[in-house]
Write a structure and sequence with these properties.
The complex is a heterodimer of chains A (303) and B (264). By secondary structure, chain A is an all-alpha fold. Chain A has 14 helices and no strands. Helices cover 77% and strands 0% of the residues of chain A. With 264 residues, chain B is an all-alpha fold. Chain B is built from ten helices and no strands. Chain B is elongated, with a radius of gyration of 22 Å. The chains are: A mainly alpha (303), B mainly alpha (264). At the A-B interface, helix 1, helix 6, helix 7, helix 8 and helix 11 of A face helix 3, helix 4, helix 8, helix 9 and helix 10 of B.
Chain lengths: 303, 264
Amino acid sequence: MFKRLLNTVIVIFGVLLLTFLLIHLVPGDPVEVMLGESASMVDREALRTELGLDQPLLQQFGSYLSKLGHGDFGHSIHTRTPSIDLVKTRYPATVKLALLSLLIGLVIGIPMGIYAALKANHWQDFVVTIVSVRLSAMPAFWLGPVLMLIFAVWLGWLPVSGMESNTSIILPAVTLGFGLSAILTRMTRTSLLEVLNDDYIRTARAKGLSERVVILRHALRAALLPIITIVGLQMGSLLAGTVITETIFSWDGIGRLLVESIEKRDYPVTQACVLVVALSYVVVNLCTDILYKVADPRVRSTL
Amino acid sequence: MKYFSYLILVFWLLAVLAGYLLQLNPNTIDLNVILHSPSTEHWFGADDLGRDILARILRGVEVSLIVALTVTLITMVVGILVGMLAGFYGGRIDAALMQVTDIFLAFPGILLAIAFAAVLGPGLSNLILALCLTGWVSYARLTRGQTMSLRNRQHVQAAESLGAGVPRLMFRHILPLMTSVLVVEATYSLASVMIAEASLSFLGLGIQAPDASWGAMLRDGVRFMLVAPHYVLIVGACLMSLILAINLGGDYLRDKLDVKREIE
């Protein structure tokens, strides 16, 4: 466990370093790229000093870290708002979207996976597997517009985009959740099939337990353990997937903030967004690992 | 199912070929047909500048395949080198290299590619660079695991005791044994790079106008969805069919070469 924590600390340091280096990857002069060619010399020098770009690289990284330590993520170069405030106002919307998508993914994916496993190698299994392969290959920028066309434009049941109405979240959440449900279906199927061959399942059946109890109480409990890891890992693609989905549905989350900041060449905000999303992912993964160890008696002893 | 995927792949190859032969011009602007629905003249309709959508899709698939092939090739070479070094030597080199991959993997999904593409600026070569910078990690991981298990095979130890040097051991005795795993991985990664490229272009970070790219077309399609729903639907369907075919091809190769993939 200590090793896992140490690893997390190193990873976080690496994430900070990589995010810090981003601005130095800008070809040419980052200040000129941000302000445009027409900016005056005075403005440029002011920004250069503010960002500390006139200092040696190592010193820059040092002051970047110490600023972060004080909760200073830099300022937007256009509105002068602290980046962290921008991120804070947008972050809850993204979390809300990601959690609802996760819920949708679980509610669709796990029953589908159980069904496919129980009908393994029958045509029902075949259909479910093909559909889930199809869904997971369906990127948000295709599924999103299709859902939008059907449910918002043609049927008019849901709002097209934005976040004014309570129902606005449904379409983006379904868009994100569908891809996740596909992966969960496949994982549940595989993992349940593996468990179903175990001795203790045979014992349970031999005891005369009903099939329902065998599947739901005995098999599923063991089969769902790997799902915890998958959910943790997929939380990451959910967070990243929100970038596209939020852009399509004009959902004012951190993903859209990222895209907007890129369009405005507001790199300090871009950096802050990338950093916050990556750190969230690291934390989610750490929690998943701990949760997995707590949930699985076989590895609990290694905790 | 596999014939179905062959069919789509062959269809796309023919389509690209036809695009060449017919000399369709994806950039011809015809202001009389702006956002027209599919017709006999423009099979897939026309976009917001009256350009033929079919011609642009055919140009788009070319660009998409070029990016996917280039990125897959580069990331594979880099990933294999890193992974083999880590897996072969183990110890500190392994720990250090894997720590680096851990850091890259801490950025979920396409986020890091978006960040790189954002600072590098738009354009084809920067797009490829951004995707390469993030893509090598999975190959490095895969190759490392494979190398570690193959490293202790008897034939490798025999070759080592006969005095074979490290490069010879790596490239003659270890690498050939993991070709099938790598081929399968490369097939799947073609599809994922195509999606990533389309995502970046969708966000305006990839290929720039007036060059055709599927991601940018999808973005325009979403923009004009209310007046011309066929635009986004057709482009999306094309992308989906190609991705699906490549993935099914991957499944086929995986089963044929008997490769056990880890959790996707």
